[in-house]
Amino acid sequence: MIINLISKIGEKYDEIYFFLYKEEKMLINKHFEKHVDFINKVIEKKDFKFKNGEKLSIVLEENNSLVELNIIGLGKKEKSDNFTLRTNIFKGVEGIKNKKIAVISESIENGKLVAESILFSEYKFDKYKEKSKEEKNNLDELEVSLLGNISLEELNEAISIRDGVFLARNLVNEPANVIYPETLAIEAVKASEKYGFTVDVYDEEKIKELGMEAFLAVSRAAYYRPKLIVMKYLGDPTSSELTGLVGKGLTYDTGGLSLKPSTSMDTMKSDMGGAATVIGALSIIASQKIKKNVVAVIAACENSIGGNAYRPGDIIGTMQGKTIEVLNTDAEGRLTLVDAVHYTINNEKATKIVDIATLTGAALVALGTTTTAAISNNDEFYKMVEEAANLSDERLWRLPNFPEYGKLLESKIADLKNIGGKYAGTITAGMFIEKFVGKIPWVHLDIAGTSWTDAPYDFYTYGGTGQIVKTLYNLIKL
Q: Are 43 and 120 in the same domain?
């Protein structure tokens, strides 16, 4: 899809999409003066009320050819919100087949939101379907002329955001026989070469040398061996501030010996959603040349079964030095994360840190699939993350980390146990990671519910959603 910015409707188009608030229907006169009487008669005859998402299609003659004008209502401006706007625009232009269209959105103040919504409407993961190549070529030829409140700089930013989010979605949607630790590292290297950041990939010997015992325990039975992926973007070499982004990188999770039911396993290719998120976010940050310093770390591995698998009842070490009693091998993400978090703070010298993980089913029970669960040890830093999420139109909800919850992780025979019991699972999982953070500002984002959807909704398609990519980008941009 190619988007051009225009200042007036004057060319030949196959279709025109006109997004209008109820109070601003007089803008029809401005752009379609010679057709205004006919358009108003059709509006009256069809009893079109400009309600949210209401659509009216009218065929007009323009420049000796027929053009389909699609008027899409946005309701009353005072009741409008960004989520509804994104949904209306996304659904309004989704599935366009024509090659040349125009979009009029001057009613909407946030032009970048409009551009993002149009760009996001082209996403489809169907590369393994027979006809996908032909359909992709049609999308490549689609030309959109946008008349709205947007600058060229904002349009370019929207395109970068699309690229980063689509990268994250594609990584999540790829099956585990395509994306495993080594190939995930290869994809990170490809992104670094395209967008301008550096990558170091460490093999199992280096991981052992670093003392990442918890990470290694999880990966012990896997055929595909673990990789530690360290990505850096130094946009401000004069600053000592360095934000760490740690993404959970379980490229496939069987649950280990605490085996998942088979009906819960087919989507476990998505258990590296946190890793995909940080790769996508860093790609946008680097492409936009943000003047901040970021290190993104992924402990990539598979949680498999086999004779060499770690077991319930085992006591394992960590890079930080604490010991962990393993009570459930399906609570593996937090084990890889604590080593990755400690590495990011201790070895890379991050001054604040966000970890992003598809961590707990309890997050879905508590918040469903639309809201990301958050835990933090620092009010000021959490407010920054929350502001970034609001700018991104991605929903967060902060959960408490009272000391009483931390006591649920106490073990009788080790420093910690890796589960806290059947209650408050999202909180205890986050607080398990907190015990390895120390005093630096930290926010934990559990995207188990928001990184994947089994059915399209609002402005998301089936599969990986790419949620929180924009939040991380906007956080660094603040």
A: yes
Neighbours of 80 (CB within 10 A): 17
Q: Domain boundary at 127, 150, 173, which?
A: 150
- The Cα–Cα gap between 142 and 133 comes to 15
Task: Determine how many CB atoms are found less than 10 A away from the CB of residue 209.
Answer: 9
Domain total of the chain:
2
3-state secondary structure the chain: CEEEECCCCCCCCCEEEEEECHHHCCHHHHHCHHHHHHHHHHHHHCCCCCCCCCEEEEEEEECCEEEEEEEEECCCHHHCCHHHHHHHHHHHHCCCCCCEEEEECCCCCCHHHHHHHHHHCCCCCCCCCCCHHHHHHHHHCCEEEEECCCCHHHHHHHHHHHHHHHHHHHHHHCCCCCCCHHHHHHHHHHHHHHHCCEEEEECHHHHHHHCCHHHHHHHCCCCCCCEEEEEEEECCCCCCCCEEEEEEEEEEECCCCCCCCHHHCCCHHHHHHHHHHHHHHHHHHHHCCCCCEEEEEEEEEEECCCCCCCCCCCEECCCCCCCEECCCCCCCHHHHHHHHHHHHHHCCCCCEEEEEECCCHHHHHHHCCCEEEEEECCHHHHHHHHHHHHHHCCEEEECCCCHHHHHCCCCCCCCEECCCCCCCHHHHHHHHHHCCCCCCCEEEEECCCCCEECCCECCECCEECCCCHHHHHHHHHC
* Residue at which a domain ends, from 88, 122, 150: 150
Q: Is 260 a catalytic residue?
A: yes
Domain that holds residue 88: 2-150
Write down the pTM of the prediction. Answer: 0.97
Return the CATH number at 44.
3.40.220.10
- Between 230 and 66, the more confident residue is 230
CATH number of the domain at 247, please.
3.40.630.10
**Could you report the per-residue pLDDT of 132-184, keeping only the tens digit for each?**
655 655 667 889 999 999 999 999 999 999 999 999 999 999 999 999 999 99
Residues 6+ apart with CB under 8 A from 276: 167, 168, 169, 171, 172, 247, 451, 464, 466
The reply to whether 146 and 163 lie within a common domain is no
Annotated catalytic residue: which of 25, 162, 220, 334?
Answer: 334
Q: Is 334 a catalytic residue?
A: yes
pLDDT grade, residue 62 (50/70/90)? confident
